Amino acid sequence: MISRAIIDEIIFRNDIEQVIGSYVTLKRAGSNMNGLCPFHSEKTPSFTVFPATKSFYCFGCGAGGDVISFVMRHENLDYVDALEFLAARAGITIPVDGESEKQNGIPRKRVYEMNLAAARFFRDCLYDEKYGKAAMEYLVGKRKLDMATIKHFGIGCSPDNAWMLTNHMKRLGYNDEELSAGFLCGIGKNSGKPYDYFRNRVIFPIIDTTGNVVAFGGRVLDDSKPKYLNTSDTPAFKKSRHLFALNFARKHCEERMILCEGYMDVVALHAAGFENAVATLGTAITSEQARIFAKYTKQVIICYDSDDAGQTAANKAIRLLSEVGIDVRVLRLEGAKDPDEYIKKFGADAFGRVLDAGVTGFDFKLGNIIKKYNLAVSEDVIKASAEVSQLIAYTNSEVERELCIRKAVDILKVPFEAMKNDVERIRRGLLREMKKKQSEAAQMSVKNLDDRVNTDASRNVRGSRAEETLLGLMLIFDEFRHEAATGKIGLSSEDFVTAFGKRVFDSLCRLELDEQGFSKSLLGLDFNADELGRIERIELERRSLARNDREVFLASIAALKKEKATVNSENDPFADLRLKQELNKRAKENKNT
After folding, report:
1. Do 38 and 24 touch, CB atoms closer than 8 A?
2. CA 372, 375, 376, 381 torsion-angle sign
3. Cβ contacts of residue 177 below 8 Å, gap of 6+?
4. CA 323, CA 290: separation in Å to the nearest integer?
5. According to DSSP H, which parts of 356-397 are helical?
6. Which of 106, 211, 259, 298 reaches 20 to 30 Å from 322, CA-CA?
């Protein structure tokens, strides 16, 4: 079988827009791309590519999935052949049998165990006066953190010693190869001997949403370089796919999140009561991290340093977050270079007030459009007005649209009514297209007409709905999938009312528990192209809904169990008799007591 590392590389090197664009003429529609479906005949485009999730779906015929399933369907190939097709397209050589990659020689679970042991070591060092005095002075004395905050984040320190952690980990049974692959130790070029990767630093554990310690960030305690040192990619960690403090922030971020530049800014904000703050991990934001934000929140407030580097990073963050449909604002702090300094100078209440005064994403986009044109030239004004009208048309709030139009016409010096008419004309077209797609999707979902994929759905509509809610949440959220796979919520495939739902649940759980980590793309091993389309629809419909929290997750489980109990009762000719016997038994017990 082709290794996970090769599959990930194939997907990464085959951009879904480019691949599908070589078969279908795609046009930009907001953050997505639309075109005529290649899998059924149509005159009005109902085929959509979603760059944010690297997926596609046709609202007309139900075809959907990722770049692999698109090739499977279009080229009539099975999963492995589709991988080979895409590998050849990207110039990737797939190792022959027996040459599969070793993933640095250690499984993901082993890295988790090793990181947890290292986190405990760093924590113990911080509370040891001999090794943790300088770090504690920095955290408590300079940064003004209380002990509750330090313990909450599991902050520790690494001693100014080149072998202390390595020797400790070896006593626990970990070898040089494992420690090196997990970036806990380096190997000397000349000596060939291991040495501690983190030395004389305050250590911030990076914890994923399921509670695993996946990596570390270390801030130096002297003038050494680099100032911050971070775990590089390991079999259990890709820095482009994680956010610092998301394990805490995900519980407080339904309306908005604060994106910071560094660990200390996040820690300071949480300590001040702003528990929806997160940070990228030593790098500028990536498209994968933007998609993580889109899972959890509607708005992101960018709170980067006011220097040139911070502003450049903010520009990139705005672009990537806007592409996945998030409302973006940029915080401008006067009198301080970062959130931590601002809160120390002016207090948490003052910071809370400036949060609501950030520059909107619209202002940023409007500024970018204006920069492209010479507003002294009539033709440029017309082009700019057309772009701005298209931009405003995607704003749902009528009041917000009105305000945006007024702001734009003041700058462009064009008639208000003219731009408003252009915006409403564009919007009417967008709304007609959206309603058509929603209507078709709703009909397929509710009525289950001619359902060839999930043939059991029409027999139990309520049960199949509960299944799709549950599976959709498992597809979107790592923590829900992990809880289901590890049995923490008391759910199994036997609780499902349809055979298709059982298969999807079992596959999701199996992939979640895989040593190399979950990969949605591997569902292609278990499902055909039509089934992959249905799975894509389940996720897509779940994403479109306003509420996707734990309450919905638990309610779907309860509803599913209730429907399953009803089905079992209907199929059991002795169910009524047993129920009466049980009631009589309880009545006697109550009488005796």
Report:
1. yes
2. positive
3. 105, 106
4. 8
5. 361-371, 378-393
6. 211
Could you give the residue ranges of the DSSP H alpha helices within 137-260? Answer: 147-152, 164-171, 176-181, 246-249
d(C-alpha 91, C-alpha 78), whole Å? 20
166: left (phi over 0), alpha (psi -120 to 50) or beta: alpha
Facing residues of 330 across strands? 302, 359
The residue length of the chain stands at: 593
Q: Does residue 546 sit in helix, strand or coil?
A: coil
Neighbouring CB atoms inside 10 A of 120's CB total: 16
Distance CA 371, CA 363 (A): 12
Q: Is pLDDT of 365 > 80?
A: no
- Beta-sheet strand order (sheet of 213-220): 156-158, 201-207, 213-220, 228-230
- pLDDT tens-place string over residues 310-328: 767 887 888 888 877 788 8
- Encoded tokens for 471: 């599976």
**Inter-axis angle of helices 108-126 and 129-136, to 10 degrees?**
90
90 contacts 18 by C-beta, under 8 angstroms: no
**6 close to 87: Cβ distance less than 8 angstroms:** yes
Which residue type occupies 240? S
The stretch 453-465 carries a mean pLDDT of: 83
Tokens 């082709």, residue located: 2
Six-digit token pair at 592? 């005796």
Cβ-contact 469, 504 below 8 angstroms = no
The residue behind tokens 């997990």 is 182
Which distant-in-sequence residues (6+ apart) come within 8 Å of 278 by Cβ? Answer: 243, 244, 245, 246, 249, 257, 258, 259, 260, 266
Tokens found for residue 233: 């990619």
437: three-class secondary structure by DSSP: helix
Of 184, 112, 125, residue with least CA distance to 154: 125
Q: How far apart are CA 259 and CA 280, in angstroms?
A: 8
Whole-angstrom CA distances from 245 to 111, 174, 182, 221, 265 are 20, 27, 20, 22, 11
